[in-house]
Each structure stands twice: as C-alpha cells, then as structure tokens.
C-alpha cells in the first residue's frame, strides 16, 4: 500500500499556477479497471442528467448517479439530488483512492458517457455544498478521453489524456481559478465512466 503513497508524492502539479492538480496515471490494473467498469455499468442506478437552462429543464443523454455516506443533498445545474447509499463496489474503489491520495471522501458523483459525442462543457466544481478547497479525486474507467483545463483569467490551457483505471486529483484553489471540461469527439465510440469522489460540507447540505 505504501507503494501508491510514494508514487503519489512524486507526481508534480500539472497546473502552472493558481491551484494543485495531480495526475497519478493508472492506479488500477487493466483487469481491475475493466472489471470495475462492467460492475458499475450494471450495479449503479443510472439516470439521465438534468439541467435548468433559461428556465427549462433539459435532459441529457449522459447518465449520472450520486452516492454518499449519508443522504446528502447536492445542487448543481439548478437541480438538487439526494445521495444513494454506497454499494460494495463503490466502497472498494473509494478505499483504494483514499489510500492512494491520502484524502477521505464522503460522496461520489458518477457520470456515464456512452461515446465521444457526450462530454462536459467548461465548468468548475464550486457548488456551495462542497467543502471549500477540498480535494476532488476523479477516477476513469473505460474509453480513454482527453481532458482540458482553462484558466479563468489568463485563458491558459492544460490538456491531458485520462487513461482506463487512472486517477486525477484536483485540490487547493483549482476550482476557484480553473475551468475543466471533457471535450466531445467523433473518434471515440466506446463508453467511459467517471467517478468524482468529493467531500460534502454537512453544515451546508441540510
């Protein structure tokens, strides 16, 4: 287990300033990643995501799910969700990520992108329910996808490819100063699942 801790300490910040984001690469083997992908596809209570845009509720093709240690309320894109109870698969992944990162998390937002036509526009995870400046650890299973950061003021760009079984960790003031996105592409025809482990501030979620 210490091997992962040592590897994490050696990874440099991929952002040039105004935040700390570390890409740990593959923290799960290919076999482990594929197994978790298959289990998540069948075990998670996936639902189409919804957002309020110009007063209208828009339903996306992308599927989402929200889990946690308590029935936390979490509001983003104008919609409030209530966390479902952890299942064993999520707890196993959570334990591994907490060991690798040295952080602890009480919730997880999952996204299912069926192919490269589905993505996420530039945004930052600065919702009021989240603990300020807390780490957000993003795990990827399935298709490799490009991921972009854009500084909110300078517009400087940072890009990387998220591999199957990999971990990306954003913390400190990353959300305050940087946007991030999952760009769409016609080249990707396979699905991807992302798990973003987060810390809900209990005093703000009730």
Can you walk me through this structure?
With 206 residues, the chain is an alpha+beta fold. Strands 1, 2, 3, 6, 7, 9, 12 and 14 form an 8-stranded mixed β-sheet that branches. It has a 4-stranded antiparallel β-sheet with strand order 8-13-10-11. Helices cover 20% and strands 42% of the residues. The chain contains 4 helices and 14 strands. Residues 1-10 have low confidence and may be disordered.
Mean pLDDT: 89
Morphology? globular
Report how far the terminal alpha carbons are from each other. 36 Å
Which residue ranges are poorly predicted, with pLDDT under 50 across at least 5 consecutive positions?
Answer: 1-10
Q: Helicity range of the residues? A: 10-25%
Secondary-structure-based class equals alpha+beta
Oligomer: single chain
* SS summary, helix count: 4
Beta content comes to 35-45%
**Major sheet attributes:** 8 strands, mixed
The Rg value, from CA coordinates, equals 16 Å
């Amino acid at each position: 287990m210490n091997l992962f801790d040592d590897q994490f300490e050696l990874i440099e910040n991929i952002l040039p300033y105004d935040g700390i984001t570390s890409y740990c690469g593959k923290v799960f083997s290919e076999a482990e990643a594929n197994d978790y992908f298959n289990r998540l596809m069948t075990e998670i209570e996936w639902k189409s995501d919804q957002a309020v845009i110009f007063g209208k509720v828009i339903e996306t093709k992308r599927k989402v799910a929200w889990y946690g240690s308590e029935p936390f309320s979490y509001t983003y894109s104008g919609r409030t969700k209530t966390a479902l109870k952890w299942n064993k698969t999520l707890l196993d992944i959570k334990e591994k990520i907490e060991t690798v990162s040295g952080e602890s998390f009480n919730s997880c937002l999952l996204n299912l992108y069926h192919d490269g036509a589905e993505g996420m526009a530039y945004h930052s995870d600065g919702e009021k329910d989240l603990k300020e400046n807390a780490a957000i650890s993003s795990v990827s299973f399935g298709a490799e996808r490009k991921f972009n950061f854009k500084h909110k003021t300078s517009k400087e760009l940072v890009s990387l490819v998220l591999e199957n079984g990999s971990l990306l960790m954003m913390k400190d003031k990353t959300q305050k100063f940087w946007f991030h996105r999952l760009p769409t592409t016609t080249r990707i025809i396979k699905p991807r699942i992302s798990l973003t482990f987060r810390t809900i501030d209990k005093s703000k979620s009730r």
